[in-house]
Design brief:
By secondary structure, the protein is an alpha/beta fold. α4 links the parallel β1 and β2. α2 packs antiparallel against α9, α4 runs antiparallel to α11 and α10 crosses α13. It binds 5-amino-5-deoxy-1-O-phosphono-D-mannitol. The site of 5-amino-5-deoxy-1-O-phosphono-D-mannitol has 16 residues, from α4 and α11. It catalyses: D-fructose 6-phosphate + L-glutamine = D-glucosamine 6-phosphate + L-glutamate. It is an enzyme of class 2 (transferase). One of its GO terms (molecular function) is glutamine-fructose-6-phosphate transaminase (isomerizing) activity.
Length: 365
């Protein structure tokens, strides 16, 4: 069942080009049209005034990424909340806001309860982005987008995450089209980005030998810091979660601009700092944040795309991800942080597919 792979997580990381192209096929079959989200979507999407995303763990980070897309592409306000927090607070519900739940399993109890609670509070419409057909959460939703990642066995979510991002990107573009913000030329451009995504992800997978060398340096560390800015900040969060979850190395993620408001105090020469630094509009800001780290002796491990123009220097290691792929760049940059966590865990000899204390599907509170 594992074929040439040592663990399900490794297999699932490598299945991403296929999982993505299968999920993208669904988008191509419908185009960026409401029908992508089920029959009810044609009447629901045009009246929306906002989006509220509810999810846990990695699925929550997919939601955080989507917020950037939904607000910038569709011009719709979007807030993202951890399901287990939302369900216990007196939240404000605007019936014109679409509730979007994101769940690989479709059975996560906190996400399910958050959805029920949102309905009680008055939300009328709910979209489920889910990987398991006919599971509890899509059954309780009026709109559905199924990711086509296939079965995910490893506790660490990998291909589920990147395919969720495809569904969420399609939601952002579809909403943008409905609202007249995405014209035919922009739509063609977004379709093109999607078509190229599996190829770029395959390029990122080819970085595995270099990432393995980095992982050897990480495996003896107690702590690590992940930095990103803008739409790559959620990828830093995801990288830190993956590392914690399977290698048991304590890791935290910060938006790089926040460093000097506290976490910079942690940085010394025993703190590896991973930076997601592709060539986007915030790159120059990220570079100056990196200098702050270097000045305190922190060792930098930088994922930079071909256009970021970084060079290696003392204490600065660089791995080049593929040429900047545009809006979908966070999807491509999820791959190297998954592989870094996987190889760090291998080095430490942990149970990669079944990390201690965790379950694949969290059906308890
Ligand atoms: O099945 P779900 O997507 O609802 O699961 C949510 C989280 O439990 C899950 O993403 C968890 O954080 C992963 N183990 C992270 O790798």
């Amino acid at each position: 069942e594992l074929g040439p792979y040592s663990h399900f997580m490794q297999k699932e990381i490598h299945e991403q080009p296929k999982a993505l192209s299968d999920t993208i096929d669904t988008v191509l079959d419908h185009g960026f049209n409401a029908s992508l989200f089920g029959d009810a979507a044609a009447s629901v999407l045009p009246q929306l005034q906002g989006v509220k995303i509810l999810a846990c763990g990695t699925s929550y980070y997919a939601g955080l990424t989507a917020k950037y897309w939904i607000e910038s592409i569709a011009g719709v306000s979007c807030d993202v909340e951890i399901a287990s927090e939302y369900r216990y607070r007196a939240a404000f519900a605007n019936p014109q806001h679409l509730v979007v739940t994101i769940s690989q399993s479709g059975e996560t109890l906190d996400t399910m309860e958050a959805l029920k609670y949102a309905r009680e509070l008055g939300h009328r419409h709910a979209l489920s982005i889910c990987n398991v057909r006919e599971s509890a959460i899509p059954r309780a939703s009026d709109l559905v987008f199924y990711t086509r990642a296939g079965a995910e066995i490893g506790v660490a979510s990998t291909k589920a995450f990147t395919t969720q991002l495809v569904g969420l990107f399609a939601l952002a573009v579809t909403l943008g089209k409905v609202r007249g913000r995405v014209d035919a030329a922009a739509e063609a451009q977004y379709l093109d980005e999607l078509r190229h995504l599996p190829g770029s992800v395959q390029h990122a997978l080819n970085l595995e030998p270099q990432i393995k060398l980095w992982a050897e340096q990480f495996s003896g560390k107690q702590h690590a810091l992940f930095l990103g800015r803008g739409v790559h900040y959620p990828i830093a969060l995801e990288g830190a979660l993956k590392l914690k979850e399977i290698s048991y190395i304590h890791a935290e993620a910060y938006p790089a601009g926040e460093l000097k408001h506290g976490p910079l105090a942690l940085v010394d020469d025993s703190m590896p700092v991973v930076v997601i630094a592709p060539n986007d509009s915030l790159l120059e800001k990220v570079k100056s944040n990196m200098q702050e780290v270097r000045a305190r002796g922190g060792e930098l491990f930088v994922f930079a795309d071909l256009d970021s123009h970084f060079s290696e220097s003392d204490g600065v290691h660089v791995i080049r991800t593929p040429r900047h792929v545009g809006t979908l760049s966070p999807v491509v940059h999820a791959i190297p942080v998954q592989m870094l966590a996987y190889h760090a865990a291998l080095q430490r000899g942990t149970d990669v597919d079944k990390p201690r204390n965790l379950a694949k599907s969290v059906t308890v509170e």
